[in-house]
Amino acid sequence: MKRLFCAFALCLATVACSDVFEPEFPPNAVLIPAPAQYRVWWEVVESCSGHTRDFDAVRWYRVPIGQGLTLDGESAAGAWFATENSIAIGDGWRTVGSLVRHEILHAILQTGSHPEEYFSDACGDEVACVRDCLDDLALPNAIPLAVEQLNVDATLFPKLPSLARDDGKAVVVVRVRNPYGVNAFVNAQRFAQASCPVGFVLTSISDPGRYDEDCRYLHYNASDTRVYFKPYEMRHLIFDLSLQSSGGPFYAEEVIVSAILMDQRRGTWKTTIAP
């Protein structure tokens, strides 16, 4: 049977998705209930791609360690099969968000190819291995920006957070944007001057002492230690958390979501966590 087979081996090999003749779905693959985290990641990919599709229409499989997926004789960590609208993930990779989201994007777009506007641009930070595996290229005629000139905001997923739904799993996406219509860069070393270069904080309104915070650096060009941005480009940082146990922990309550840039809170907004 001819199948559209999409496989991904993280940065150990190139992403490979093509129309090829493949054997039946791996007989060692085991059908599993969709993990709660996957539903939240699905919502994240819907947001970055601008497309929606039924999460429950996908069948999920795990592949035991040592009995991995193969494509053209090479090992792969995950795969999307168009015929069954199925996703299979190797046991060693089932919690690797960028890999799972990569296959989710294929399922949402219903294509085994890698359209650049989605896999590199719109969702390039959400999915592996497009931006993650490549060093940022220097952009021509890029103007220098102070880090403080960047725009930043934070979005909490799911959009209707709940302690019970999806086992309380959640994701915060922090978006850092070049607000100018020109190529630009910021000095990556500048971020080292902050305790929290880029991140988020989720805070209980009733008890500000209960909060969750996480911080990271932006990926940069190793040759000149600059973070490059195309005109109006957004960079995304993805943070997984559990409303039941991370930080707080949180209860059914109102919380404040804030982005952080160079230790300063930005774009603060309020939402309610349901029971």
Keywords:
disordered N terminus, 6-stranded mixed sheet, 2 domains, 12% helix, 37% strand, 4-stranded antiparallel sheet, Immunoglobulin-like, 275 residues, mainly beta
> Poorly predicted ranges (pLDDT <50, ≥5 residues)?
1-5, 9-23
Number of domains: 2
Helix and strand composition category? mainly beta
Strand order of the largest sheet: 2-1-7-8-4-3
- Overall, the morphology is globular
Can you tell me the CATH topology of the largest domain?
Immunoglobulin-like
By DSSP (H or I, 4+ residues per run), the number of helices equals 3
Q: What proportion of the residues is helical, as a percent range?
A: 10-25%
Distance between the termini: 47 Å
Q: What gyration radius follows from the Cα positions, in whole Å?
A: 20 Å
Under the CATH scheme, the architecture of the largest domain is Sandwich
Mean pLDDT: 88
Task: Describe the protein's architecture and organization.
This protein is mainly beta and 275 residues long. It has 2 domains: 2-122, no CATH class; 143-272, Sandwich (Immunoglobulin-like). Helices cover 12% and strands 37% of the residues. The strands form 5 sheets. A 6-stranded mixed β-sheet has the order 2-1-7-8-4-3, with helices on one face. Strands 14-13-17-18 form a 4-stranded antiparallel β-sheet, with no helix packed on it. Helix 1 (36-49) packs across helix 2. The longest helix has 14 residues, at 36-49. It is globular.
